[in-house]
Specification:
about 0% strand; Farnesyl Diphosphate Synthase; 15 helices; mainly alpha; disordered C terminus; single chain
Length: about 325
């Protein structure tokens, strides 16, 4: 029997930047060799392991039965994110990103029509079919990346929340749906999940405000809340003084407080989930919460210094989540109805 092609022989190198794979798997590529579904899933797994975020996405806390599904969703998001963020920062690059994201939406449409072509969509199709996932959360994510190409500054807190509703909340919604929850039957859990995902996203905006400004020309700090527009931020960054740092800290303090309120709202979420899912969710939320706390402990000066959790701190959180999972299994927490 002839061996099935591997991801390497198919040119699906998980170490390669997404844009480097467009020659073979992009919108203008010549027809690529057919990718077996198993190879597509292998690529999604490898890509996910290659790009750990604050915590490894496929950690042992992800239920084994859901790991391929989490990998497929992550691979979809990774491609969408890179198509939106990695083309450059001028008008031509933003137009190219918009075109590529339109193509990515077309590939998603084909996937939901039962005709997936792209390797990531082949893997995602398995997950969609297993869990009967709706298309809208995936489309919302693509729309958020398209919005990044034309809407680079946010005036109000509500505008930022609307952006997070598309750029972050769908991920949490999809994770809940993987474990059998539905908005119609568990609306309270989806409300808590949305609060958690929005808080995580805004913490990321606070943490990465310097990179967003310099590399992408984006300001996610609501101007009516902070009184910090792009020229002001660039001037402060170029003229690093104690007064500038204090002004920046005072400006983002209300934004930090509003985000902390979201974490407080989301706090009950992990324990209300099925015992197989809640330790993973607890770890992700705690990682964001502790990063948010680190922002304040360093004086709210993220325009100059990006706070991050140490490997030791991350390790302790993972161990605590694992211990909580073990304890929870030993006491046999009832599965939700």
């Amino acid at each position: 029997m002839q061996a099935l092609p591997s991801i390497n022989t198919l040119g699906l190198d998980p170490k390669a930047p997404v844009l480097n794979l467009l020659d073979r798997y992009g919108p203008t590529a010549a027809p690529a060799p057919a990718v077996p579904t198993d190879a597509a899933v292998d690529y999604a797994r490898a890509l996910t392991r290659r790009h750990p975020e604050n915590f490894t996405v496929l950690s042992l806390l992800v239920p084994r039965r859901l790991r391929d599904d989490v990998a497929a969703i992550y691979a979809f998001c990774r491609w969408a994110d890179d198509l939106g963020d990695e083309t450059g920062n001028d008008a031509h690059a933003r137009q190219r990103s918009t075109t590529l994201l339109d193509w990515w939406q077309h590939e998603l449409d084909l996937c939901y029509a039962g005709r997936p072509k792209h390797p990531v969509m082949l893997a995602l199709a398995q997950t969609i079919n297993r869990h009967n996932l709706p298309q809208q959360p995936f489309t919302d994510l693509i729309d958020a990346f398209k919005q990044d190409q034309k809407h680079t500054h946010y005036q109000t807190w509500d505008e930022l929340l609307d952006y997070c509703a598309k750029s972050a909340n769908p991920v949490g919604q999809l994770v809940l749906m993987l474990d059998g929850y539905a908005p119609a039957t568990h609306p309270d859990l989806f409300t808590l999940s949305d609060a958690a995902c929005t808080a995580l996203q805004i913490t990321n905006h606070l943490q990465d405000c310097k990179r967003d400004l310099l590399e992408r020309g984006r300001v996610y700090l609501p101007i009516t809340t902070t009184r910090l527009d792009e020229p002001t931020l660039r001037h402060m960054l170029a003229n690093d003084t104690a007064a500038a740092r204090q002004r920046f800290a005072n400006a983002i303090a209300p934004l930090w407080d509003q985000t902390q309120a979201l974490y407080n709202t989301a706090a009950p979420l992990p324990k209300r989930l099925n015992r197989s899912l809640w330790p993973m969710v607890w770890l992700l939320v705690q990682g964001g919460q502790q990063t948010h706390a680190a922002i304040k402990s360093q004086g709210l000066t993220t325009l100059w210094h990006r706070p991050r959790l140490s490997k030791a701190r991350k390790g302790l959180l993972v161990l605590r989540a694992a211990a909580l999972a073990l304890t929870d299994n030993l006491v046999q927490k009832p599965v939700r109805a």
